[in-house]
Amino acid sequence: MVSSISNPDLDSEALKNIVAKLHIHRNSPIPRFLQLKSQFEYLIVTGVCSPGQRLPSIRMVSAALNVGPATIARAYHELEMARLVVSSDKLGFFVVGGEVAQSEPHERIQAMVTEVIDNAIAEGISLDQVFEVFVAQIATMRMTLARPQIALIGKREGRIAELAMHIRHALADLNADVSTVPLEQLAEDIDGWLPTLQKMQQVVCLLWDVKQAQELLIGHGIDVVPLRGVLRDDVREKIAALPEHVKVGIIASSNQFIDGMITAVMALNPALKIVGSTDAQHRKAMRTLCDKVDCIIYGTPARAIVKQELHRPIDEIELVYVPDPTSLQQLRRLLHVDLHKHNNPKNRQIDK
Questions:
Q1: Which residues have a Cβ under 8 Å from the Cβ of 217 and sit 6 or more positions away?
Q2: Directed axis angle between helix 32-45 and helix 127-146, to 10°?
Q3: Looking at residue 24, which CATH number applies to its domain?
Q4: CA–CA separation, 141 vs 147, rounded Å?
Q5: CB-based burial of residue 247 (10 Å sphere; 0-12 exposed, 13-18 middle, 19+ buried)?
Q6: Cα separation, 36 vs 32, whole angstroms
Q7: Quick one: pLDDT at residue 110?
Q8: What is the CATH number of the domain that holds 313?
Q9: Same domain, 246 and 208
């Protein structure tokens, strides 16, 4: 609510004085709507725009600064989302009443800002320079908070960096920040990782690692979103192109994955002759298998051992998995819900 609304016929000189305090740095990396929002925030918090004050119209600011009306409208909308102004379809935008603008948290922040400014002046820094630093820092923080934060848990040898890159590309329009968390490190130092994971919008993991990740995190209130995996396109093409007479051996990182690997390979090329299979931990059995086949197909976690033990020229195909499109769409929906909650003022609480 607004405690008092200014007269719509307010002297235009008052509005011109507000506009005169605004500026746009056209070469700045900070979006123009954020530049304007930060300036209005400063004018409101410092009392230049008092409670009930009507703000200059979108058309007026647009003409004065030579900036598109959509940019001004977005800046005003951001101020409204921050509960600093309210809008009226007929009258425009007004600064909120004193009960919000001068609330206790704002007073504490204003005191801290004043102290910072005093210290800066004592160091010989001009007010204009201080203002630029504040604008830049606020813009940086706003972008960081609006950027979806995702943690990807995966085995150290599981191409985790490549998986993270794949997710970033799939969510490029959201500018998602995807951090990697090696499963082995998480198991060794879960307390050290918890502060990072608790800040994330989503924690994700490929399906075959999700059980271990959930067991580590379920007691800490962190949900792990499973991502189904599909073979990368080039891997599928290689397997499908293998001729019928080729003798194939399957090497998994663990016995529990062998049947699934065989199923995946045969689905792509039913005519293949699979001579045998083993897990990479049984190195003698693996060497024996490699001596009998023309081609080995192995899982990513077994890559390091396979490279060590392969002592003769042989065709090899690594089963490289990436998140399937359906899982990525589900992740996108979850992120959309989280960001909506974060950006909705009704879902925010101010600590008192």
A1: 190, 197, 203, 223, 224
A2: 120
A3: 1.10.10.10
A4: 10
A5: middle
A6: 6
A7: 74
A8: 3.40.50.1860
A9: no
